[in-house]
Design goal:
Layout: E1 2-11, H1 16-36, E2 44-48, E3 51-60, E4 66-74, H2 75-78, E5 79-80, E6 83-84, H3 86-95, E7 103-107, E8 110-119, H4 124-137, E9 158-165, E10 168-169, E11 173-174, E12 177-178, E13 182-183, E14 194-195, H5 202-208, H6 215-233, E15 236-237, H7 241-249, E16 255-260, H8 270-281, E17 283-288, E18 291-300, H9 308-335
Antiparallel strand pairs: 1-3, 1-9, 2-3, 4-8, 5-6, 7-8, 9-10, 11-12, 13-14, 15-17, 16-18, 17-18
Helix pairs in contact: 1-7, 6-7, 8-9
């Protein structure tokens, strides 16, 4: 028998690059966990900057029963003069039974001690706490942090937890946080926790709270917004795939916005401007007729009716970076390639 399973680990904002580097390993680790616990089935791993999510459509409610056949030492070494030897008694201890409970079998042409161990599968609800704990421990993000009075570490503080198996909320604890039936939506919609009636309502609750759960949906929305801006402005937005993956990872409600900077900064080499925008600010460069313009696109995570302040804020942040770059660029041009100071080197 199976039931859907939802695991949501709510965190403070995750850094994009460490998360993207190990996304595949996170999935592989959970698949390995399912195999180890004899609960193999299909699942989906999903992330936003504030949550790590596992979804199963058909999670077995119990492990498969298992049978283990154990071969022991040869009878000639296990029994002497009708009495069990240390080798025989040691094998019995290994099997967890009295010596008399052992049988005999043929192995590679020799008669040996034998024990058939049958193990009934445990209930999934009893295993999830241990499984999730091991899964979390396997996430090698690199630089970790501690918070509060805790000694354990994670990439960011864990703030809420849901573990739902069918209609039941499974008791699990992570970093002192106990599982319940609540989640959190976009901060600009609602700051307190929201009740999730059941697993089937989970994504609907998030959608109403301005959270797009699926990374692929966020990417499609961003690219669609790029298309709309390009058509309206007659420009071309550079679609850097690595940068796109980053902004998908740091947004729950992405909104592509067109900003600009003073045209005097176009005096800088295009590579300098592009580096300042992409690597430092996660802005997408804008081109017109193949030439870099004084515009850029920022993907905001804000949820508001008026994005003008968001645009102005990003324009304000970019200006000092470009001002510094222009100062040093002009200074270098004045000095030229020959420098007296190099004569002393």
């Amino acid at each position: 028998m199976t039931k859907p399973l939802l695991i949501e680990i709510g965190v403070e904002e995750l850094p994009a690059i460490p998360l993207l580097k190990i996304t595949k390993k996170i999935e592989e680790s959970w698949a390995k966990m399912l195999k180890e616990y004899r609960l193999e089935n299909n699942f989906e791993f999903i992330y936003t900057p504030r949550r790590l999510v596992l979804k199963h459509d058909a999670m077995p409610l119990a492990q498969e029963d298992s049978t283990i056949e154990l071969m022991g030492p040869p009878i000639s070494a296990a029994i002497k003069e009708g009495e069990p030897t240390q080798a025989g008694l040691g094998f019995a201890r290994k099997c967890g039974v009295a010596f008399e409970a052992l049988g005999r079998a043929e192995n590679n042409g020799r008669e040996v001690l034998y024990y058939k161990k049958e193990e009934k599968g445990a209930q999934t609800s009893e295993l999830l706490d241990e499984m999730i704990g091991k899964w979390i421990d396997s996430m090698a993000f690199g630089k970790m942090m501690r918070w509060g009075e805790r000694k354990d570490e994670f990439i960011r503080p864990v703030r809420w937890l849901q573990v739902r198996l069918g209609e039941a909320s499974v008791p699990v604890e992570l970093f002192g946080v106990k599982s319940d039936t609540k989640t959190y939506v976009h901060r600009m919609v609602r700051y307190d926790a929201v009740e999730v009636p059941d697993i089937s309502a989970y994504e609907e609750v998030l959608n109403r709270g301005a959270v797009m759960l699926q990374p692929r949906q966020r990417e499609e929305v961003i690219l669609s917004q790029f298309d709309a801006i390009e058509e309206a402005e007659g420009i071309t937005i550079e679609r850097d795939r690595a940068l796109l993956a980053e902004v998908v990872a740091i947004t729950e409600n992405p909104k592509a916005l067109l900003g600009s900077f003073d045209e005097m900064f176009l005096e800088l080499p295009p590579e300098v401007i592009i580096t300042s925008m992409k690597e430092h600010q996660r802005y997408f460069p804008v081109f017109e007729h193949g030439k870099l313009t004084n515009k850029f696109v920022v993907v905001s995570n804000a949820y508001t009716d008026d994005y003008s302040k968001v645009i102005a804020g990003n324009e304000r942040v970019l200006k000092p970076r470009l001002s510094d770059a222009l100062f040093f660029y002009r200074n270098d041009l004045q000095r030229g390639l020959s420098t007296e100071g190099l004569e002393k080197v």
